[in-house]
Amino acid sequence: MLMSVYDPIARLYDPWSRSVTEDVPFYLEEARRWGGPVVELGVGTGRIAVPIASDGIRVIGVDSSRGMLDVCAERAALAGVGSLVDLRVGDLRDPPVRERVPLVISPFRALLHLHSDEDRRLALRAAQRLLAPGGRFVFDVFTPSRGDIEDTHGRWLEREPGIWERADWNEEERTLTLSVRDDANESTMQLAWLAPDEWRTLLSDEDFEIDACYGWFNRTPYTGGEDTIWVAHRRE
Questions:
Q1: Contacts 24+ apart (CB under 8 A), 127-133
Q2: CA 14 to CA 21: how far, in whole Å?
Q3: Is residue 62 within 8 Å of 68, Cβ to Cβ?
Q4: CA nearest 13: which of 53, 42, 56?
Q5: Are 11 and 65 within 8 A, CB to CB?
Q6: Which one of 28, 60, 148, 150 has the fewest beta carbons within 10 angstroms of its own beta carbon?
């Protein structure tokens, strides 16, 4: 498999994202509700997977970055849950998972790494194939506000001490080119966003029934804003 854009910053990722904690209790609650094993698409360094495994729930984690998976394995071992975290190198569109599970999750906007409706549909179909009867697919995405674009476009901002990020927005193409660096490492990735109604249409077209669309991880119903958190199940 080709090198992932996350490999150069695998050791930088946790300090870079240390302030992102609001989603952890939400996904842990979903795992407790639906049970395991849980498949996490875009498991990264285990920011979500390790807390779920620490609750005694097995996690199958898929990621395209071997570097991130190495960090995740170390993190799980340090937490004493290495045996509950099964890590696999793979793609969101064709995850190397044959099990059928009660819960598939894709946290922290992982689906924004997919740049076309064709790829998004492949990922949705893949998630659906993994679901056991009655299982749920839960993920979060965002649509940037005008204010966020104006505040961050084309500027290097110190996200955490010694860690800098730059957002270059293309509103016509609806893409974000995000660069992250410290004194020793740097990487650049491109994300692509959709409006919430477009996600709703894709889910419906791929035979998902939507249980909820939240505007934040406190389960407030979505009424507008940047973030959407989706809970869906396979249409019977």
A1: 127/41, 128/206, 128/207, 128/208, 128/234, 130/39, 130/95, 130/97, 130/99, 130/100, 130/101, 130/104, 131/100, 131/101, 131/102, 131/104, 131/233, 131/234, 132/100, 132/101, 132/102, 133/234
A2: 11
A3: no
A4: 42
A5: no
A6: 150
Alpha-carbon distance 184 to 153, whole Å? 23
Angstrom distance (rounded) from CA 149 to CA 211: 30
What would the two tokens of residue 230 be? 């989706």
Q: For residues 229 and 29, what is the distance between their CA atoms, to the nearest angstrom?
A: 14
Nearest CA to 130 out of 212, 52, 39 is that of 39
**Of 213, 203, 195, 215, residue with least CA distance to 144:** 195
pTM of the model: 0.97
Query: Could you tell me the sign of the dihedral formed by the alpha carbons of 141, 168, 5, 51, in that order?
Result: negative
CB-based contacts of 143-147 (< 8 A; 24+ apart in sequence): 143/193, 143/194, 143/195, 143/196, 143/226, 143/228, 144/169, 144/176, 144/193, 144/226, 145/225, 145/226
- Residue keyed to tokens 């996200």: 159
Per-residue pLDDT of the chain (236 residues; tens, 9 = 90+): 578 999 999 999 999 999 999 999 999 999 999 999 999 999 999 999 999 999 999 999 999 999 999 999 999 999 999 999 999 999 999 999 999 999 999 999 999 999 999 999 999 999 999 999 999 999 999 999 999 999 999 999 999 999 999 999 999 999 999 999 999 999 999 999 999 999 999 999 999 999 999 999 999 999 999 999 999 999 98
